[in-house]
Amino acid sequence: MNQNIGTEEAIKRWDSFADTYSANHTEQGDLHKEVFLNPTLLSLMETVSNKKVLDAGCGEGYLSRMLARSEATVTAVDYSSRMIEIAKGRTPNDLLIDYRQGNCEDLNCLEDKSFDLIVSNMVIQDLANYEKAFQEMYRLLGDGGCFIFSILHPCFVTPESGWEKTKSGKKLHWNVDKYFYEGVYEQGLGDKEKMLFFHRTLTSYINTLIKTGFILESIIEPK
């Protein structure tokens, strides 16, 4: 696949897929988020009341709304203009969420040290320049602030991962290959859409966080 394909192409595909994606989300997100991600993210956040929170890559906004209902002051950004439209449409007037279209790789519309908490839920793998995104999160956090993010597990979701099946369709095992490949690849979502993802190893993620200046406190693999 052409390695020059980057975030701009990913944005186009997410704009096209936004309505289908959002149709599968309730006020708790999709099933995967409701069962696995939300309990973990919320346990790491602890209390958010009266905190300034950035939802970095908010999608259709379910997590932003959850945070606002918990009395956080929420700013929500997403690089898909259609996602922002959907998020605004799903947000009641009494939830004062500041929705903005913006790429997490460059959020110069937001001031330095303006947030107590930044959460990025299943977003970083959608960005070509994750190093720049981490630098932006670091810039935007106030002293003592916390950055929490979730990603597809890079050990098991790789460019050539997937179920090995019999001719009758019975699942045999999950194939994992090209873990050390770093770059763009396509993966099907839904029946037709092929989305862009950007694979990196755990080593790259962790070392980049440390190089950026973050202190790593916890890694959780929900089960």
TrEMBL record:
Example GO biological process: methylation
Record keywords, A-Z: Methyltransferase, Transferase
One Pfam family per UniProt: Methyltransf_11
Native organism taxonomy: Bacteria, Bacillati, Bacillota, Bacilli, Bacillales
Occurrences of domain Methyltransferase type (ranges): 54-149
Organism: Peribacillus simplex
A GO term, aspect molecular function: S-adenosylmethionine-dependent methyltransferase activity
Gene3D superfamilies per the UniProt record, alphabetical: Vaccinia Virus protein VP39
Alphabetical list of SUPFAM superfamilies matching this protein: S-adenosyl-L-methionine-dependent methyltransferases
Alphabetized InterPro entries for the sequence: Methyltransf_11, SAM-dependent_MTases_sf
Listed name of the protein: Methyltransferase domain-containing protein
